[in-house]
């Protein structure tokens, strides 16, 4: 390699690092602006600590049995973590976010898997949204989107909210919030309502095949 070739090679290396580092700085600035709320809605710490909850009203008899239930928007009743069968939690993690206990809201390995699936056309590679990201979407629904750029920005916002949720809650609390918020259809929002609507039981009485 002669002197001119070495000079050109060093020039290419220099610009490669300039572009590479500029990209990293730009992405970091983008996420910082999203986190600060400069690019649209971002829940405050207080809103993350007290997310919106709409619960049905239940009428109990003297012996503690539910006589009736009334709701306007969501047929949802809160259930405690200790009333969730372990195999229900295991089934959720196995189907929605197998690396749930190994990431902090964003699963980079899952995102790479999705990217590989898009490139290779293998759509069965699985989704890249973690349980925390799905919870972020449920707690703070997407605004009306006007184009692909808005969709990408909203996805970035969900990543930021997911990370904030992971910092504010334990893994068990995130699972509990997810199962209490998820819409199982047929006017069954949350695992307690779903267990009653579909199987006529309480969550802690769900059988293994029902939980799956």
How would you explain this protein's 3D organization?
This protein is mainly α. The protein has 2 domains: 1-39; 42-211, Penicillin binding protein transpeptidase fold (Orthogonal Bundle), CATH 1.10.3810. It contains 9 helices and 2 strands, in the order ααββααααααα. The chain has helices at 3-35, 45-49, 86-96, 108-120, 131-139, 148-168, 171-181, 191-199, 208-211, and strands spanning 57-60, 66-70. The chain has a two-stranded antiparallel sheet with strand order 1-2. Helix 5 packs across helix 6 (148-168) and helix 5 packs across helix 7. The chain is elongated, with a radius of gyration of 23 Å. 21% of the residues are buried. The model has no long low-confidence stretch (mean pLDDT 80).
Quick structural gist:
The chain has 212 residues and is mainly alpha-helical. The protein has helices at 3-35, 45-49, 86-96, 108-120, 131-139, 148-168, 171-181, 191-199, 208-211, and strands spanning 57-60, 66-70. The chain folds into 2 domains: 1-39; 42-211, Penicillin binding protein transpeptidase fold (Orthogonal Bundle).
Q: Termini distance?
A: 64 Å
| Strand elements, count | 2
Second-tier CATH architecture of the largest domain: Orthogonal Bundle
Largest sheet: 2 strands, antiparallel
The rounded Rg comes to 23 Å
Strand line-up in the sheet with most strands? 1-2
Q: Tell me, rounded to a whole number, the average pLDDT.
A: 80
Q: Percent of residues in beta strands?
A: under 5%
Structural class: mainly alpha
What helical percentage do the residues reach? 40-55%
């Amino acid at each position: 390699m002669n002197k001119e070739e070495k000079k050109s090679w060093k020039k290419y290396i220099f610009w490669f690092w300039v572009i590479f580092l500029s990209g990293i700085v730009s992405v970091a600035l983008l996420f910082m602006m999203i986190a600060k709320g400069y690019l649209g809605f971002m829940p405050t710490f207080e809103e993350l600590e007290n997310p919106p909850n709409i619960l049905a009203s239940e009428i109990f008899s003297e012996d503690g049995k539910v006589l009736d239930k009334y709701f306007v928007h969501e047929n949802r009743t809160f259930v405690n973590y200790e009333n969730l069968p372990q195999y229900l939690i295991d089934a959720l993690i196995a189907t929605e976010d197998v690396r749930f206990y190994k990431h902090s809201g964003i699963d980079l390995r899952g995102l790479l898997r999705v990217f590989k699936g898009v490139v290779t056309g293998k759509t069965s590679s699985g989704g890249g949204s973690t349980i925390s990201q799905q919870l972020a979407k449920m707690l703070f629904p997407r605004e009306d989107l006007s184009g692909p750029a808005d969709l990408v920005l909203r996805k970035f916002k969900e990543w930021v909210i997911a990370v904030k949720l992971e910092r504010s809650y334990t893994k068990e609390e995130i699972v509990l919030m997810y199962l209490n918020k998820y819409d199982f259809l047929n006017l069954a929002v949350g695992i307690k309502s779903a267990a009653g609507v579909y199987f006529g039981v309480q969550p802690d009485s769900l059988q293994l095949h029902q939980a799956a």
